[in-house]
Design brief:
Strand order of the largest sheet: 12-11-14-19-16-17
Distance between the termini: 43 Å
Number of helices: 7
Strand content: 25-35%
Radius of gyration: 24 Å
Number of strands: 27
Largest sheet: 6 strands, mixed
Low-confidence stretches: 1-38, 375-430, 550-557
Helix content: 10-25%
Length: about 550
């Protein structure tokens, strides 16, 4: 799969597309735009998958990707609910590999997580996955070995329902989003460990300082800069990795290649969105079309019509659209506003519609980082206890807009002084978060959010009050009644903790190798509450192989261990 687009050509293309797009629907060289075929679709109950290396050219420079059956992404796998399927996975790499079936209910030894559910697939070996399909919907699969997912080992799963679905449509398209870098992912991670904001090129400037003075006043601007400077944090760090190194793909196609999904005017089109990226949150809209969300993470929800939705890493959404014109742009901008993936819904190949400009970059606030409504009042606090803090590119709430000069240093962060702060006196204060004792004086914990809340009605930073109807988690309500109906017998509370500089993540400050198992009882119904104690937007991927989950809120699940 060759994409012959240099970064310079890509940027020129964006300019040209903006000019041409202003003229409405326009045509261009269909051969170049569709030079990459849509990933193959495999159906049935027997599948042969081979993981190997494939030369790709996405940015103008050839690189070796790790692929499934030679494709990036891998083939779309289409199963039927109730079938028993067999997948033979052959490893042609010179390193261990694996495939994890994301969100699929199956036996633990079929889950594909090396060191946890099986030993991995060694070079030249074949592993046979066999399990009964107990669900339907939109899912995906990816490697769980090293950083292979970033290198291309991922693909979509469609499971056709055994019973009629609660909505109608005439045709469907898979829209798989991902991020690609020409860099070796291990080198990329090494850079982040040395300087967490390495890829943040939207840091505060002198010019932005004076613009802020003009709009907010000198005193407020200085107080704000002082607060961030004393904390050694940066309010423009929304994403660890930005469009500086990433090219954002839609079904394996870079923006200029313009992946195209065909339709006939008046049809109802089901779009199965999958975020298969390694690091990127996307904000998705189709200018000129409303989207009716009918499923989330493979589960039917009551229909809700929106203009835009945010999709976190590993999430899936199914939406229905009803296009009447000739062409519509599917626009998926990264949350930090440093780039986008883009494709087209069109009545014929070779058409394109206007590509909207990126939205303005937002700015982090104290509340976004779990510090409550402290805002600028923090400027008057004694920050000496927080003196070692600095920012992490993983603070994915705002890869910056033109930001006032905070005098932020790129020196290594040290949040240890904040992690060691005595929060016990704050625990009884309204809205203040209590933390497990295992987080205190813990070298694996360099930050603690003081105030956390579900925020189910919050569309997220950069999407608030933007003039469009944006999906929130509060909008997602199950299409069907709870078939179990029991109240949970107990609650397990887990706190996500971490050290941003070391990229060390844990629950309750305890690394995996030291953590005792979470014991469940067969057949019980329990609630698991997940609390993000970090100061970053972080997707929880919470899986218990063979367990049945019913999502109640963003941070609370009911689990039936059957």
């Amino acid at each position: 799969m060759l994409l012959k687009t240099s970064r310079r050509t890509f940027l020129k293309g964006l300019t040209l597309s903006g000019v041409a797009g202003s003229l409405g629907v326009w045509s261009f060289n269909a051969r170049s735009s569709l030079s990459l075929p849509v990933a193959a679709s495999l159906q049935g109950t027997q599948f042969d998958l081979t993981i190997g290396e494939t030369a790709v050219n996405i940015t103008g420079s050839e690189r070796q990707a790790k692929t499934i059956n030679g494709g990036l992404p891998g083939p779309v796998l289409r199963w039927k609910e109730g079938d028993t399927i067999t997948l033979k996975v052959k490893n042609r790499l010179n390193e261990q590999t694996s495939i994890h079936w994301h969100g699929i209910i199956l036996p633990a030894n079929m889950d594909g997580v090396p060191g946890l559910s099986f030993m991995g697939i060694e070079p030249d070996d074949t592993y046979v996955y066999t399990f009964k399909v107990k669900q339907n919907g939109t899912y995906w699969y990816h490697s769980h070995s090293g950083l292979q997912e970033q290198e291309g080992v991922y693909g979509a799963i469609i499971i056709d329902a055994r019973e009629p679905e609660p909505f109608a449509y005439d045709r469907e398209h898979v829209v798989m989003l991902s991020d690609w870098t020409d860099e070796n992912p291990h080198s990329l991670l090494k850079k982040l460990k040395k300087q967490s904001d390495y890829y943040n090129f939207n840091k505060p400037t002198v010019g932005s300082f004076f613009r802020d003075v003009n709009t907010r006043g000198l005193s407020a601007t200085i107080a704000d800069r002082k607060m961030w400077a004393e904390m050694k944090m940066n309010p423009t760090d929304l994403a660890d990795v930005s469009g500086y190194t990433y090219t954002y793909l839609m079904n394996g196609q870079a923006p200029l290649k313009n992946w195209t999904g065909l339709f006939r005017p008046g049809e109802k089109i089901r779009l199965r969105f999958i975020n298969g990226s390694a690091m990127t949150y996307f904000d998705i809209r189709i200018p000129g079309l409303k989207m009716t969300v009918v499923a989330a993470d493979g589960q039917y929800v009551n229909p809700v019509t929106v203009d835009e939705f945010r999709i976190a890493v590993a999430e899936t959404y199914d939406v229905i659209v009803e296009p009447q014109g000739e062409a519509y742009t599917i626009f998926a901008q990264s949350m930090d506003r440093t780039g986008y993936a883009r494709g087209t819904l069109a009545t014929r190949e070779g058409l394109s519609a206007a590509v909207p400009p990126l939205d303005p970059r937002p700015l982090l606030t104290m509340e976004d980082m779990g510090m409550g409504g402290m805002g600028h009042d923090m400027a008057g606090m004694d920050h000496s206890q927080m003196g070692g803090m600095d920012n992490s590119g993983e603070m994915m709430s705002m890869d910056g807009a033109d930001l006032p000069d905070s005098g932020t240093s790129s020196a290594p962060m040290d949040h240890s002084s904040m992690a060691g702060m005595d929060h016990s006196r704050m625990a009884g204060m309204p809205g203040m978060q209590s933390h497990p004792a295992s987080e205190t004086d813990n070298p694996l914990v360099d930050m603690q959010a003081m105030s956390v809340s579900p925020k189910l009605n919050d569309p997220g930073i950069g999407l608030r009050n933007n003039g469009r109807k944006v999906l929130t988690y509060a909008d997602l309500k199950s299409r069907f009644e709870d078939p179990d109906g029991r109240e949970p017998g107990r609650t397990i509370e887990l706190h996500l903790t971490g050290h941003m500089e070391k990229f060390a993540w844990s629950f309750n400050g305890i690394k995996f190798s030291d953590a005792a198992p979470v014991l469940l009882k067969y057949g019980e119904r329990l609630r698991i509450t997940l609390i993000n104690d970090t100061m970053m937007i972080t997707p929880f991927t919470c899986m218990v192989c063979g367990a049945i989950w019913k999502m109640k809120t963003v941070i609370s699940w009911f689990v039936n261990t059957q």
